[in-house]
């Protein structure tokens, strides 16, 4: 399709764009890592592409990590966040392109250097802006269309499959990094699969992405009789709610006491980080109220929870909302 010289130029151009996209330090780290033995090399974050969950449901996933990782960090982004080329092509969202999905994956891999990072890309973006996950029941703006009633654990069943399939996708590659003495012998791919599928899990929701974490809570009751979900949920050790918010009129934070009591049984450590952008929004005053109730009721039912208010003395801004991703 292209003459050979054009291909060479294209490849050169792609290489040149790397420092701009990933930042100078990442480029330098990558240059260094290629000179090191594979056991200590940190793999750059990259798009895994489409990962299948249920036969008709799938999500694109971004992955970072090397085989020394000891747990999984699963991140659900908010509105606006997309691949950088989509953000650059959008009139408004280009202003926030530094928070593109791969850049956030890089941030997370620095924040959690001993973890596998999985960024779950929303299945579609209404008006290229409002994220929606196909495993949640949401309207076109991606707002949850349900209340705080317990419900069948569709999202949990789906996420378990998605994460297992994503892990299997990278495990053979991790297996190739194995050298000498290792918990998994070099010729046993299934061992690496099993190791990955048993590691602890941290869920991180940011902004609109927090609706996935909320959904998990509403599904816990009906997940109780399902053995594979109990096994999956037992691996969840920590959950981060980062400045949760959506366009709906309530249930931005979970306040239902029965739901929170179910959650307490899991003994998950919870970290809440908020900024004035959401919790001081006078037009959506319920967000701040619900957030305070969420934390208060979690404490009441015995959940180990921390709450951090960032940029409290600064005016509300979308910029500080995004910056919670570097501050938490
Ligand atoms: C509570 O969570 C913190 C992490 O934020 C952890 O270090 C601590 O051990 C936990 N405490 C209990 C009692 O589980």
Automatic annotation (TrEMBL):
Q: Which UniProt keywords apply?
A: Signal
Q: Which InterPro entries match?
A: C2orf69_mit
Q: Carries keyword Transferase?
A: no
Q: Which GO terms describe its cellular component?
A: mitochondrion
| Tagged with keyword Signal | yes
Q: Where is the signal peptide?
A: 1-19
What's this protein's name? UPF0565 protein C2orf69 homolog
């Amino acid at each position: 399709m292209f003459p050979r010289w054009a291909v060479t130029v294209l490849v050169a151009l792609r290489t040149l764009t790397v420092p701009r996209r990933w930042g100078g330090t990442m480029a330098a780290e990558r240059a260094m890592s290629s000179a090191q033995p594979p056991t200590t090399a940190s793999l750059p974050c990259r798009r895994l592409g489409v990962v299948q969950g249920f036969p008709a449901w799938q999500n694109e996933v971004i992955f970072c990590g090397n085989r020394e990782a000891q747990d999984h960090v699963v991140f659900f982004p908010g509105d606006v966040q997309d691949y950088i080329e989509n953000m650059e092509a959008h009139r408004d969202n280009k202003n926030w392109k530094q928070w593109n999905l791969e850049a956030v994956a890089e941030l997370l891999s620095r924040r959690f250097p001993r973890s596998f990072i999985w960024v779950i890309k929303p299945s579609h973006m209404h008006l290229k802006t409002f994220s929606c996950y196909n495993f949640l029941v949401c309207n076109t703006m991606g707002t949850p269309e349900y209340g705080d009633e317990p419900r069948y654990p569709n999202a949990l069943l789906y996420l378990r499959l998605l994460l297992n399939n994503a892990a299997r996708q990278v495990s053979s590659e991790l297996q190739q990094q194995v050298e000498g003495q290792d918990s998994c012998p070099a010729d046993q791919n299934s061992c690496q699969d099993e190791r990955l599928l048993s590691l602890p899990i941290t869920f991180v929701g940011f902004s609109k992405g927090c609706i996935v974490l909320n959904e998990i809570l509403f599904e816990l009751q009906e997940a109780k009789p399902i053995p594979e979900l109990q096994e999956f949920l037992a691996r969840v050790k920590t959950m981060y709610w980062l400045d949760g918010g959506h366009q709906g009129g309530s249930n931005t934070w979970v306040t239902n006491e029965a739901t929170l009591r179910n959650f307490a049984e899991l003994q998950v450590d919870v970290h809440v980080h908020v900024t004035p952008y959401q919790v001081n929004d006078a037009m959506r005053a319920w967000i701040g109220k619900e957030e305070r109730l969420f934390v208060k009721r979690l404490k009441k039912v015995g959940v180990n929870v921390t709450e951090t208010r960032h940029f409290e003395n600064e005016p509300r801004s979308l910029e500080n909302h995004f910056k919670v991703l570097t501050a938490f």
